[in-house]
Design a protein that fits this description.
single chain, 603 residues, alpha+beta, Phosphorylase Kinase, domain 1, 4 domains, six-stranded antiparallel sheet, 56% helix
């Protein structure tokens, strides 16, 4: 059985989903089914401030006071707030235009009495006040926003209803209706007046986020208002009665009925689309915020844990992108392998699972920072002391992985993130174990196939490029190629095609680093060139030996935490990038496909 904390989290998530689906009783019954967890559930609910109260005897009852679940309220609030502000500004603009037209039209001014001006002023003040309040108070809860919505609708309805009464009482309609075409005039007048109400009703249904039931109630009230005004005027005015009740009213009723139907249907469909979009942004206990990037096998999103409110990065793969079972197995193995690694220089895995549509995902720590590829691209080659500081951390992460019998097979600058963690600057995180291989695994169990290369050609070891069996010294070569790039800004081999790159790694001598950077310390250059030896036996035997060689370099220890902190303080936060994205060649890529890729950069 899962631990209590996991069960409580699962219950809270399921409870929230049932509330969103309009099944509050099912949500209550779900919690009652686990009486031993109800005290903890109540404590969590109060701590999250998701609901207002629960009954004292939580072993028998669980009553929710708030009408909206936390996540739904958080999604609805900013949308409803902005729509109300926009609607208020539109109506306020209409009132001002109407006031301007009245002021410049002498005939209309003559028909205005003091009460008309008073209502006009009241509508302007009420609407302007609501819009100003919304502008100043951006964190108003949804129930308060719903009351503002009703107030705005009431002001609009009263203004339009009074305008309709004034128009019918003005006698203008009777004057133009005299003669043989009086019925046609009334039909046209009914249609013309209906268009104003038609626009108000349809705009509300398609503009305001609401349920179809609430929409039906409000737009039904809007449609009923002009009909009641027309009936009242027809019954109290004998001259207007024969026109309004026989010709004007049926036309208006038909138009307003059509408006109500369009508004309710539109509101219903838009609500369905919003719910569908909201569900697409949810994976298990996580809500996706924004897409950060994509590679050959997966996509990465910035996400947030729905209960803990902790930011994280989620890597996922759709079933149709997997291509076959082996690809999905490789992706699942990546998270399982990474979850076994606990070194602080390896990216931490929080969780993994499958969504209802079969999407496999895992959540890892959010690392706002620089991948080393972007760092060199933006700021140029690193100083020797800083490069050694970074490489020693990468060695520490590899030491744990190699001790566990794992070979990364895709060490490169874009898979090393430089970030700030726990107030410490220049912390290195190794990520993307999608190509990891168990060193002791026999060949038949590998998730690769004939005619495929695995990894990134610019940083491949000779034995990896040749498709031979690998051990952990292959990662030593790739880390040496990464160090070459960090110190010189150049690849060990720069060739126009992937095939030529692979051939260079297999049979050509790496140019000295001092060819690109004459001031580089000789002892550091010797360490890097030994990593890039063609024969695995000529390289450092393991990551620990490489880390010791780097520590013995004359520049080791010269990059202080104060220097690192100062460098980070001088960087605009907007420039730091999150690069938890697999490279285009982070997967099983055929030699033909790889040959079409430029090798001027790693990816």
């Amino acid at each position: 059985m899962p631990p209590p904390d996991t069960r409580v989290n699962d219950l809270l998530l399921r409870w929230e989903e049932l509330r969103e689906q309009g099944q509050p009783q099912s949500a209550v019954e779900l919690c009652r089914s686990c009486p031993e967890l109800l005290p903890e559930l109540e404590r969590r609910i109060r701590a999250l401030e998701a609901f207002s109260a629960a009954l004292p005897d939580t072993r028998h009852s669980l009553v929710v006071a708030r009408p909206l679940p936390l996540a739904a309220s958080q999604e609805l609030q900013p949308l409803l707030h902005s729509r109300l502000r926009g609607a208020g500004l539109i109506f306020l603009g209409g009132c001002l235009c109407s006031l301007a037209l009245t002021a410049f039209d002498a005939q209309q001014r003559e028909g205005m009495v003091w009460f008309d001006w008073l209502l006009f002023l009241a509508a302007l003040v009420a609407t302007g006040g609501l819009v100003g309040w919304l502008q100043l108070r951006r964190e108003l809860p949804v129930p308060v926003l719903r009351r503002v919505e009703v107030l705005l609708i009431a002001v609009a309805m009263l203004s339009m209803a009074w305008g309709q009464i004034r128009w019918l009482r003005s006698g203008w309609l009777l004057d133009i209706a005299q003669g043989t075409a009086e019925r046609k005039v009334m039909l046209l007048a009914g249609e013309g007046l209906s268009l104003y109400w038609f626009a108000l009703i349809v705009l509300y249904g398609t503009f305001m986020p609401t349920t179809w039931r609430r929409c039906a109630l409000l737009v039904g009230s809007m449609a009923l208002t002009p009909i009641l005004v027309t009936v009242g005027m027809g019954l109290t005015d004998e001259r207007l009665g024969r026109y309004l009740l026989h010709d004007f009213l049926p036309t208006m009723s038909a138009w307003l009925t059509m408006a109500v139907a369009i508004a309710v249907y539109g509101s219903h469909k838009i609500s369905e689309l919003r719910r569908a979009a909201s569900q697409l942004r949810k994976l298990g206990q996580y809500e996706l915020k924004q897409r950060l990037g994509a590679g050959g096998m997966g996509e990465v999103y910035l996400a947030e844990h729905r209960l803990l409110k902790r930011p994280c990065a989620i890597k996922l793969i759709q079933p149709e992108r997997a291509g076959d079972v082996r690809a999905m197995q490789r992706f699942e193995r990546e998270v399982q392998v990474m979850a076994t690694l606990t070194h602080w220089n390896t990216v931490e895995i929080y969780d993994f699972g499958h969504a209802e549509d079969g999407t496999f995902y895992y959540a890892m720590e959010y690392l706002p920072g620089w991948n080393l590829d972007d760092l060199v691209e933006r700021h140029g080659p690193l100083s020797p002391e800083r490069a050694v500081h970074i490489l020693r951390q990468a060695c520490a992460a590899l030491r744990e992985a190699h001790a566990a019998g794992l070979i990364h097979r895709d060490i490169k600058p874009s898979n090393l993130i430089l970030c700030e963690r726990g107030g410490v600057a220049d912390v290195v995180k190794l990520l993307d174990f999608g190509l990891v291989q168990l060193a002791a695994a026999p060949r038949p169990t590998k998730l690769t196939w004939e005619g495929a290369i695995v990894g990134t050609p610019a940083y491949m070891s000779p034995e990896q490029a040749a498709g031979k069996e690998l051990d952990h010294r292959s990662d030593i070569y790739s880390l040496g190629a990464t160090a070459y790039f960090l110190l010189t800004g150049q690849l060990p081999f720069d060739r126009p095609t992937a095939v030529e790159l692979l051939a260079a790694h297999i049979g050509q001598t790496v140019p000295p680093l001092t060819q690109h950077r004459p001031d580089l310390p000789a002892d550091l250059e010797a360490v890097i060139l030994r990593c890039l030896a063609k024969a695995p036996a000529d390289r450092y035997p393991d990551a620990a030996a490489l880390e010791a060689a780097l520590a013995a370099c004359s520049c080791a220890g010269q990059w202080s935490s104060q220097q690192a902190g100062q460098w980070w303080q001088n960087q605009p936060r907007s420039d730091a990038t999150l690069s938890l994205v697999p490279s285009p060649l982070s997967g099983n890529t055929s030699l033909h496909e790889a040959d079409t890729l430029s090798s001027s950069r790693a990816d």
